[in-house]
Fold each of these.
Amino acid sequence: MKILHILKTEPDETVRELMEATADEEAKTVPLFEGDVDWTGLVDEIFAADKVICWW
């Protein structure tokens, strides 16, 4: 299952642990807090993923 993690802010330890618990070899992370986001690419990633998890 392809999981996409979208991070609005830098994750704390709890969020990191939860991300690792749901991660597999196809998991991908998009850190929005780092700036310079490829929004078109992000929309493509959202539609390509089986599951999208947004972290605040």
Note: Residues 9 and 44 are 21 Å apart (CA to CA).
Amino acid sequence: MNWLITLMGLSVAGLIAAGVYLELRPRPLPKALPRWLKGGVLANVLAFGVGLAGVLFLGVEQVMAQEVVAGGVREISLGLGLAIIGVGLPTALAAIGAGIALGPVGSAALAVIAEKPEMFGRTLIYLGLAEGIAIYGLVMSILLLGKI
């Protein structure tokens, strides 16, 4: 498990180094980034994703392998902590997705309302549909929390 955490730390350090490189050597928009930089960033993102998935899977395995203790104070182990993080991920990712969806939908809704104020009700429906994504993620987290 420690090697996965080390892999994730190194990939984050690589992404930070790429960000510092791009900050210190800015390029005009038409110029393409160096090929090695694109490959390095992609490799770091993939390494972080693999490490995160491995830590989550191994953490859930540790939680499921423990015996249930009846009564008493329950200690939070590394596996239980990672399982709780895994339970929170659906809400987090759904909220990010809803935020990405609400940006264009909200700006388009404001543009429509500026031209035709009678369209206000319809635009609220579209905004509610985009916000529903976050509610689905919250429901999934609540259902998963019952499994721990």
Note: The two ends are 21 Å apart (CA to CA).
